[in-house]
Amino acid sequence: MTTTPHILILGAGAAGSAAARGLAARDDVRVTLVTETGEAPYTRMLISGVALGPTPPDLIALPLPQVEVVADTVVDVHPSARTVQLATGARLPYDALIVATGSKPRTLPAGVVRGATTATGSRVSTMHSLADALRIRELLTRGGRPARVAIYGGGLIAAETASLLHAAGHQVAVISRSHTPGVGAFGALVAERIAADHAATVHTHFGRIVQYVDRSEFGVAITLDDGTPLVADFLLVALGTIAAAPAPWTAGVDVDERLRAEPDRVYAAGGVATLHHESFDPRRIDHWEDAAAQGTHAAKAAASELGLGEDPGSYLPRSPYMAMIHGRMVSGVGYIGGAESHLEDTDEFVVRHEAGGTVTGVTGIDAVGTVYQWGSQLHGSPA
């Protein structure tokens, strides 16, 4: 008797939900989606609206696809036995596995937060989860006056949050380890423009490291590595993310250009996956649209390996993003890591990012239409 192949998906964020959605309508495969114990999935890219605006948490809830859902925590994956161990003791077998457990925020090194750690730590937050967003909302309104917010980081979340907080009347200081923050996220040419806007709009401390965070009478006292003291109501840590991978993986799941991991019939997508491709350096691409695209691709690749469809081929990053930062619309498509940057000879501020003579990504300022048109032309061939 022929049994229906079983695809098991770990994680219900952008990548996992997209993978499940891509398989939900099929009648030739059984799909199980494992969510974290107690987790109510939500759209992570919208949590800034909860933290900094009036968005109620229920409006960012992420509807789950019509597949079997198991609410349990993954303890371990056994690729040789093709089973997944859950916290309740249950074991789930699979014919193909998609690991989409996402990422977790990079936090301050041990010893940086000093003194009354619990009291001080309550005023140090990342902005990665809905719980973070609700904590930040409470901190912003606690004093009954505009808040003093220090932001440690220079990427997309740090830049957009600094802009939104300043526009709302809060006092903002941006601390960045780099002298030009955001190069990894935007490319050097766009990052330089954003850095100049930061310097003209908020307090900046570029090329500096947060050495200590102590409790102060009304918030936190921050000491930078050059001895500069800062006082804020709270510190927002935006130092990027690291993979949140289940055992036996520790630093994320390495995948090839088809999103296949080395264990047979294992795939990974989203913030947990490190993509290896001959056209660019290994890289985790941790933003919502790209994670969803990876999840969709991984679902097709897994089905193909089970003999249930055509091979989707290589995954190539083409996903768009945009953010309003200090009154400028910053946008991008594709992948810019390790690429050479070239300013387009147009009236708009548009930058091509090329690896080996091939355009892998495009970024720009106040040029969303032009930037997005590049999406189908990236990587040397039409999408």
From TrEMBL:
Gene3D superfamilies membership: FAD/NAD(P)-binding domain
**Cofactor(s) needed by this chain:** FAD
Q: SUPFAM superfamilies, alphabetically?
A: FAD/NAD(P)-binding domain (SSF51905)
Pfam family membership, one: Pyr_redox_2
Q: Which UniProt keywords apply?
A: FAD, Flavoprotein, Oxidoreductase
The answer to whether UniProt assigns keyword Oxidoreductase to this entry is yes
Residue ranges of every copy of the FAD/NAD(P)-binding domain listed in the record: 6-295
Q: Does the keyword Heme apply?
A: no
Q: What is this protein called?
A: FAD-dependent oxidoreductase
What organism, scientifically named, is this protein from? Leucobacter manosquensis
